């Protein structure tokens, strides 16, 4: 331990995230309900002459350099291992940035760290992302979802029932966010395009209804809200694709699935399904695409309870 401190070696570990509901509203100051999940990215490093990142997944260098300058950290030789598959919709980039941040600055306030990681993501990619993914990875809580108000940055842990399994299904359509109309959708919504705003306003109402239904353990209502969220993302925000729509409809039809929708930025990516725990094996076997079954986890800046 002492020798590793003397050499300046550090390690940071951070989870990926799912978003239960509240899609494409974070950058407009809406409320969202993500959760950190039990797939982690680990970064280790030590000070060096120049930045380098060794990882199975390319592209980490730009993230590390930009985050380093956000955090005021000099060049590091970094090595990354990850259980968070890239481009599968559980935010491998937020997990990487938050792992680097907690490795380099473990003493930092989790909210400040999340904001620094959001700025780094925006600068490294040019995509004007909101703060949801970095917040969930930094400050999510095991056994809970995180209700986050993206205007005030107030957040609260909402108990998430054990009987619900979270499945993240890979649509097979992988796109890097920088190649999608993400920024365009953001501009349209900010310019009060009526169709885009209809999604935003209805989605925010669904987040509140979802939290209320979680409290009452009304799982069919959760499913109904997921379905409505998908329809709104498909028809009003127009971030779905025919492949994803077909996958979501297949998920809806499988026994034990309460509901499913496109998750994350969209334009391909992944589908979130909430499934009765007793039926999850059959669900995964029936859906016909690779699926990760996730449990909620603690964020990188949360001390385990
Ligand atoms: C990506 C962004 C988030 C959020 C979602 C859509 O995951 O990183 O900030 O905007 O898309 O809800």
Give me a quick take on this structure.
This protein has helices at about 1-5, 60-70, 90-105, 110-125, 130-140, 180-190, 195-215, 220-235, 240-255, 280-285; strands at about 10-20, 30-45, 50-55, 75-80, 145-150, 155-160, 165-170, 255-265, 270-275, 290-295. The chain has about 300 residues and is of the alpha+beta class.
Features:
alpha+beta, six-stranded mixed sheet, four-stranded antiparallel sheet, 10 helices, 10 strands, 40% helix, binds alpha-D-galactopyranose
Q: Report how far apart the termini are.
A: 24 Å
Total helical segments: 10
Q: What is the H/E order?
A: HEEEHEHHHEEEHHHHEEHE
What gyration radius follows from the Cα positions, in whole Å?
Answer: 19 Å
Structure summary, number of beta strands: 10
Category by helix and strand content: alpha+beta
Polypeptide structure, described:
By secondary structure, this protein is of the alpha+beta class. Helices cover 40% and strands 25% of the residues. It has 10 helices and 10 strands. The protein has helices at residues 2-7, 60-71, 92-104, 110-125, 132-139, 182-190, 194-215, 219-235, 242-253, 280-287; strands spanning 10-21, 31-47, 52-54, 76-82, 144-149, 155-159, 164-170, 257-263, 270-276, 291-294. The strands form 2 sheets. Strands 1, 2, 3, 4, 5 and 6 form a 6-stranded mixed sheet that branches. Strands 8-9-7-10 form a 4-stranded antiparallel sheet. The radius of gyration is 19 Å and the shape is globular. The mean pLDDT is 95. Alpha-D-galactopyranose binds at residues 23-24, 26-27, 129-130, 132-133, 264-265.
């Amino acid at each position: 331990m002492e020798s590793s401190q003397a050499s300046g070696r550090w390690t940071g570990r951070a989870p990926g995230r799912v978003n239960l509901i509240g899609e494409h509203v974070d950058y407009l100051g809406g409320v969202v309900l993500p959760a950190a999940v039990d797939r982690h990215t680990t970064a280790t490093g030590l000070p060096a002459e120049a930045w380098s990142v060794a990882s199975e997944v390319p592209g980490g260098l730009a993230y590390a350099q930009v985050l380093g300058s956000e955090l005021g950290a000099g060049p590091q030789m970094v090595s990354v291992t990850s259980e968070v598959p890239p481009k599968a919709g559980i935010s491998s980039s937020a997990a990487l940035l938050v792992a680097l941040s907690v490795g380099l600055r473990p003493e930092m306030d989790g909210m400040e760290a999340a904001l620094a990681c959001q700025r780094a993501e925006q600068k490294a990619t040019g995509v004007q992302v909101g703060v949801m993914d970095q917040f969930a990875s930094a400050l999510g809580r095991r056994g809970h979802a995180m209700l986050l108000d993206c205007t005030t940055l107030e957040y609260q842990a909402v108990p998430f029932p054990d009987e619900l399994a979270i499945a993240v299904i890979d649509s097979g359509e992988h796109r890097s966010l920088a190649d999608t109309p993400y920024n365009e959708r953001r501009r349209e919504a900010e310019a009060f395009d009526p169709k885009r705003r209809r999604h935003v306003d209805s989605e925010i109402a669904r987040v509140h209804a979802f939290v209320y239904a979680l409290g009452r353990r009304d799982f069919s209502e959760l499913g109904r809200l997921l379905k409505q969220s998908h329809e709104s993302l498909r028809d009003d925000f127009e971030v779905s694709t025919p492949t994803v729509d077909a996958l979501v409809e297949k998920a809806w039809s499988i026994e034990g699935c309460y509901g499913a929708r496109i998750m994350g930025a969209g334009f391909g990516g992944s589908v979130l399904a909430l499934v009765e725990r007793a039926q999850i094996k059959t669900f995964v076997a029936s859906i016909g695409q690779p699926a990760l079954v996730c449990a909620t986890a603690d964020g990188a800046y949360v001390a385990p309870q």
